[in-house]
Write a structure and sequence with these properties.
Elements: H1 3-13, E1 14-20, E2 24-29, E3 34-39, H2 45-60, E4 68-74, E5 77-83, E6 88-89, H3 90-99, H4 112-125, H5 135-143, H6 151-162, E7 169-171, E8 180-183, E9 186-189, E10 196-198, H7 201-213, H8 222-247, H9 251-255, H10 258-267, H11 273-288
Antiparallel strand pairs: 1-2, 2-3, 3-5, 4-5, 6-8, 7-10, 8-9
Helix pairs in contact: 4-8, 5-10, 7-8, 7-10, 10-11
Length: 297
């Protein structure tokens, strides 16, 4: 098959868009059982290949990941063909619960947040070959040099990170609740581009930072915002309680990773100005406080 013929054939396989992310769109692909994740043209092909390798390693190890089939180039864009996972993200379910004013039951054994903690614990305990990215180096590259911080503050953030305990466990690296899909109650974790070997507390801290510092969209009804302010504390307690019971990781160990988790979120460019301001203030407090400086391993 010539390259031109292959490109024309692939365009005929492209169906309707069913999802939009910050770096890609997801389309139906040739039927009901596959999708293609097409990355923006600005995404380096090496990054797409990395996600394909990481997803393959996770799926082949039996982790709850969508099966990747092959790399493709479609309409000049790099992409990956995946098994189609039809379900609902944890993030969407959180908003449904907020708008229905569903009170969180701390003792509910099968709540979404406890499921999420269990999924992360399974990932962190997995023995997976094929993921080689070093967590700390990768995190520093993602964080970059956000305009919200001075050069001295960025240096302090890096110095803070250098003191964090080093481990070599599998980490997902992008634990936004929008990346966990429930299909008939079964979890599937997507978006493995940032998977790495490192300290799993970083994954958990990312979720905790989102819960504690999230700012709802400005169009959110005042009653929902008020309910969310009471909901977020219970959500945090449930998530940390479940992960801690399973892993033995303490709340203190998780909170030590708030600085890089928050800096990574700021660098994404996807947050509101209000949320960025809250995270910047938290980071400045932490890097200035000797009492909160993590101990060397």
């Amino acid at each position: 098959m010539t390259d031109r013929y292959k490109e024309v054939f692939q365009l005929t396989m492209l169906g309707k868009c069913i999802g939009i992310g910050s770096s890609c769109e997801v389309y139906e692909w040739g039927g009901d059982d596959k999708v293609v994740k097409l990355f923006h043209s600005s995404t380096p092909p090496e990054a797409v290949q990395l996600e394909y390798r990481n997803c393959s390693a996770a799926w082949e190890s039996g982790l709850p990941a969508a099966r990747p089939f092959e790399l493709v180039t479609c309409d000049g864009r790099h992409g990956i063909i995946f098994e189609k996972i039809v379900g609902e993200t944890i993030l969407n379910r959180i908003f449904e619960h907020l708008y229905s004013f569903r009170v969180i039951d701390f003792n509910e054994a099968d709540s979404d947040l406890r499921k999420y903690a269990r999924v992360l614990n399974d990932i962190h305990k997995a023995n997976v070959s094929g993921v080689a990215t070093e967590q700390m180096e990768h995190l520093k590259a993602i964080i970059g040099r956000p305009a919200a911080f001075t050069n001295d503050e960025i240096t302090s953030i890096h110095a803070y990170m250098d003191l964090l305990p080093v481990k070599r466990q599998l980490c997902h690296g992008d634990t936004n609740p929008g990346n966990l899909i429930l299909r008939n109650g079964m979890p599937f974790m997507v978006d493995w581009m940032h998977a790495s070997l490192g300290n799993p507390a970083a994954d958990v801290a990312e979720v905790c930072v989102m819960i504690e510092y999230a700012v709802l969209p400005p169009e959110t009804p005042a009653a929902v915002i008020a309910f969310f302010e009471t909901w977020r504390h219970a959500a945090y307690e449930i998530f940390v309680d479940e992960y801690g019971k399973l892993s033995g990781v303490t709340e203190e160990e998780i909170r030590a990773w708030y600085v890089p988790a928050a800096a990574r979120s700021i660098a994404s460019g996807a947050l509101s100005d209000e949320q960025v301001a809250k995270l910047v203030a938290m980071i400045r407090d932490d890097i200035r406080s000797e009492a909160k400086t993590p101990n060397k391993p």
